[in-house]
Amino acid sequence: MDALLDHLEEAVEQTRAHVTGALGEGRVLTASDEQITRALALAAELQRLTEAVLVEATGEVSRRSQSAARDDRLTSRMGCHDVSELVQRLARCSASTAARLQRAAKPTMARVSLAGTAMPGMLPALHETMIDGVIGLDGVLAVAGPLAEMSRRVPYEKVLAADQVIAAVARGEGPDGAPPATADLLKIHATTWATYLDQDGAEPRDERALRVRGITLGRERDGVVPITGNLMVEVAKQFESICHAIGSPRVDQDGPVMFRPSADVEPDPLDYRSDVRTPAQKRHDAFATALSVAASSQLLPTIGGAAPTLVVSVREEDLIEGRGWAHIDGEPVALAASVHAGCAGVIQRILTGGNGRIVKLGTEERVFNRRQRRAIALRDGGCVIPGCGVPAAWCEIHHVIEYAHGGPTHVDNGVLLCWYHHRHLGNHGWQIRMSNGVPEVKAPPWADREPRWRPATTSPTRLLDSIPRRT
């Protein structure tokens, strides 16, 4: 061990000197492609070897801190509450990293027999690939998780067989002769082996999932309500499918949907309103759409003899003048939320005067009914904003002339918009009007060299009908 410590100290000093000199002088900026990729690969290999030491040392710290007598524990002698605190202080890492090191150490570290002799860990082949620098912390956890879980129900010799095959895959020596696998690919291999060998593991896992499933809504703060919880796999996958179905096919490489102007047109920064939602924000909007569709489907259980109804209260003069606040179940929300809700779903709006008197009580029947929705969907095809791509089934119906301003709930005054474009119609520069019962859209200056009103539809029927007029 002394030789390893001496080597590590020397390696740290040498590496620090070279790294400080190379990076501090900006040599990376002038390096060739080959030099950059080689540096990345070598640094990663060095990191994997370093992580092997971290995992081994963390495992031994854990073993020496298991004494029933607190004063005999290594953590106590070092003045720390537990292993996590000691690892965090020595490695200068986060609590999550310390926890990952401890999880990686359990299936790989050597065990001590009753006679006091060292024994191989539960996954010896994985351990060898780790200390050889073939895989690092990510790879160890990717493999150890599935294999350690199934080891409780599968004969140990089968676990060893899976361990050896996956270790060969990690080295690039697997049956298919593929190059060394990444951590994500190793996890796929480990999960596949666990699924194949542990035929009875699904039910216990499902029982645990049923126990820990749940969603918790926090208290409103700054206009948002935090949500935490655990979704069962099939529920999460269903939600992912909904997100994919609602998401636009026009996806930028970095994620957000971008309606970019032509390369030869210089956009006005004030007019540029691209969709720069983060993936998390897109999932929120997809969730909002799914809730809206479910509430308006008439398939949910009733509450008090009626479908789940969102009650939005707003003062009449505020609604007319477009200022002030609305309230949902006592919580203040932006007036735009009430306008959006009043146009989109199965809701009931209550207009109150300045003295609190109920001036007008709306009814659910004023929203577009199923027959109107089917007709509008046939006409529009999907969200009428060009390039959006959200299908009709996931769209809301927007009153082109707002209902609060006398707009009728009629097919000649309704167009399909996705939740996002409906909620933020006034912010992204697109304009909508009806012309003889047909929606027309006017693009912002950055999206159309000569902005003008153009009919908008993705309906295959209408597009097919338009072909003879163009030939």
Automatic annotation (TrEMBL):
Q: Which residues form the HNH nuclease domain?
A: 371-423
| Gene Ontology molecular-function annotations | endonuclease activity
Q: Where is this region: Disordered?
A: 445-471
Q: Which UniProt keywords apply?
A: Endonuclease, Hydrolase, Nuclease
Which parts form a coiled-coil structure per UniProt? none
Gene3D superfamilies in the cross-refs: 1.10.30.50
Q: Which SMART domains match?
A: HNHc
Q: Which family does it belong to?
A: Belongs to the Rv1128c/1148c/1588c/1702c/1945/3466 family.
Q: What's this protein's name? A: HNH endonuclease signature motif containing protein
Task: State the species of origin.
Answer: Microbacterium aoyamense
